[in-house]
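Lab intake sheet, docking and co-folding queue.

SAMPLE TYPE: protein with bound small molecule
LIGAND NAME: flavin-adenine dinucleotide
LIGAND FORMAT: SMILES
REQUESTED OUTPUT: full 3D complex as structure tokens
PRIORITY: normal
SUBMITTED BY: R.K., bench team

The fields below were copied directly from the construct record.
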Amino acid sequence: MNDETRYGNDLQVLVVGGGIAGLTCAGLLEQRGFSPDIVEKTNRYGGLGYALGLWPAGSNILKGLGAYEAFQAHADPMHTYTLLSDSGKKLHSYDLSGLAVEYGKPHLIWRPRLIDVLGETVTDENIRMGTTVTDIDQHDDVVDVTFTDGTEGTYDLVVGADGIHSTVREQVFGDVSLTYQGMTSWAFWVDEELLDRGVIKEHWGDGRFAGLYPTDDGLACFLAVAAPEGMPDPVAERKGRIRERFEDMGGFIPDVLDEMETTDAEDIWHDDFYDLKMDEWTNDRVVLIGDAAHAPLPTAGVGASMAMESAAVLAGELTRTDSTYLEQALDHYVTRRRDRVDEVQQKSRQIGTFALFDHSLLTGIRDQIVKFYSQDRMEEYYRGFLSSEI
Ligand SMILES: Cc1cc2nc3c(=O)[nH]c(=O)nc-3n(C[C@H](O)[C@H](O)[C@H](O)COP(=O)(O)OP(=O)(O)OC[C@H]3O[C@@H](n4cnc5c(N)ncnc54)[C@H](O)[C@@H]3O)c2cc1C
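RESULT FIELD (auto-filled):
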């Protein structure tokens, strides 16, 4: 027998997408004796990104991966959440330390750093960068896959972890529509002089939103405005467009706009706000995890945690099964994730709508609600994100 020999019902798994969900799933599988193949479309990690808030539900999974210390070395704990109005008036400041004592510390980390940390949990030889799938053909309890580099492989299971614009989803589940949530957004670094360690500051404005997120790599700024779907964002006019939408705003915005002028427009990350709700996450021997299955809106700050939770639940189920009982394992994965994902997605839409009301009357009412929204109520609201069996 040689190394290619397949013993018993060992599962051969392909993970498409080496992002947060894909690397978490692959890392956990490797830790438990599997050797999943991973293909990642980009040639190399790094470059543009944004700050991610990671709740303990997500970061605890890093403990199981043996990567929590590396994560902590690059992540900043958050202790305060301050909300400002469109004009810059402070509406409320919430202390996050009570929740931290109850559930663990929430952290902020630059997305590429989290990818680095997760990347360390998988064997380099198992990841093929700059590669994706061109064909996925399911038959006789196996999945035949053709890759863009011309190679082919046969697997028991293909995990689609290729993000909100998933190709696996498109190829296997057909045309599943994303829902445009009426907002477009930008992210870039601003000067550390504005940095207030551990403090998130957000303007909930009138059809616009701005946030400052301190990370170990610097202070990340995220801006979003109400916009029709598909609004073009040519790089050459990007800064002008941002300035036009934000220049009459108060608070930290004037400083942020000055900072933006020192940034190359090409280094400003841009994307539109879509989310995704789909009924089926499995199709025979293809399963979706993370944003490919259940992308929430970025404003809720939970997508990465949810992606890691789904990855961990799937990996756990796979380690308790073999090829014969794969269908049952996938059913368990869906059952364990469905209610939690639905609830969090509903909340993410509520927060997104509330934070970006595009009407001055509604904005005024919202500001009053936020002013009187107590620390206790905020904690109660976030318990929904924090406390759930996964
Ligand atoms: C501006 C912004 C702010 C956010 N803030 C937060 C936050 O504070 N907290 C939070 O928890 N979440 C946040 N999110 C959401 C979070 O980033 C996502 O939910 C999370 O990244 C989902 O992880 P994923 O692995 O499913 O997808 P991704 O992280 O998108 O990873 C998908 C991977 O698949 C690769 N890929 C894509 N297509 C293919 C293909 N065809 N073949 C192979 N590989 C492919 C991609 O290159 C990528 O590496 C934010 C999102 C945005 C846009």
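REVIEWER NOTE: The domain at 13-77+105-178+275-354 is CATH 3.50.50.60 (FAD/NAD(P)-binding domain).
SIGN-OFF: pending second check by T.M.
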